[in-house]
Amino acid sequence: IQMMKMTRTRHEFLLAAALALSLISASAFAQQTPSEPAPSPQSAPEPAIVVPSRPATPLAQKEIVLKVGRGDLQQFEDNVSRVSVSDPDVADAVVVSPHDVVINARVAGITTAMIWHGESVSRFEVTVQPDLEEITRQMKASLPNEPIQISVSKDSVLLNGVVTDAEASKQAAAIAGIYAKNVVNLLQSPPPVNRQVMLQVK
């Protein structure tokens, strides 16, 4: 009986040892086996750059006349690709949709706007005129007694009339210069009176 107990105990010991050895081997194999890298997220494809097949065809030049602070909407059947303004201080061009461009007048002057759309390019000569109503209102407020005539020619302000003296003429030109780069001052003033002292000799 003791012999049978020893044999069974030995058998159980061998089974436990074999099980422990198999667990150790499985753990070591798992550590040595490299884990597969996680798939990297695919980046969105970059938009294709459309290269024109030939130079843009220039269209006939158009003229736009605006007052300071006003805007003009230009619409095109083809998609607008880019815009360029030679003097952005005078006016700017803003693409508001694939078919619409707004030209905004900033200060008095003349500039050129180029708009590329489809296979064509449109050229605009933009003339920004001073706000005549605002100049007239300011002139009357500063020089109410002076009969000054104000007119606008493209980006220039013209002053005509007869004023009291040369100082009034200078002041009128300074006011007009606030609203326009070019001021043509044609105001006339009477010459200063030379006071002569008559001496009588007896």
Question: Topology, please?
Answer:
Elements: H1 2-32, E1 57-58, E2 62-67, E3 71-75, E4 80-85, E5 91-97, E6 100-105, E7 109-117, E8 120-129, H2 132-142, E9 149-153, E10 156-162, H3 166-179, E11 182-188
Parallel strand pairs: 1-8, 2-8, 10-11
Antiparallel strand pairs: 3-6, 4-7, 5-6, 7-8, 9-10
Helix pairs in contact: 2-3
Protein model, in words:
It is a single chain. The protein has 202 residues and is of the alpha/beta class. It contains three helices and eleven strands. Strands 1, 2, 4, 7 and 8 form a five-stranded mixed beta sheet that branches. Strands 3-6-5 form a three-stranded antiparallel beta sheet, with no helix packed on it. Helix 3 links the parallel strand 10 and strand 11.
How many angstroms separate the termini? 179 Å
**How many individual β-strands?**
11
Individual helix count: 3
Unreliable spans: none
Q: What is the oligomeric state here?
A: single chain
Summing up helix and strand content along with how strands pair, one would put the structural category as alpha/beta
Largest sheet: 5 strands, mixed
- The string of secondary-structure elements, in order, is HEEEEEEEEHEEHE
Radius of gyration: 44 Å
Query: Mean pLDDT across all residues, rounded?
Result: 81
What's the overall geometry?
Answer: elongated
Helix content: 25-40%
Indicate the proportion of strand residues.
Answer: 25-35%
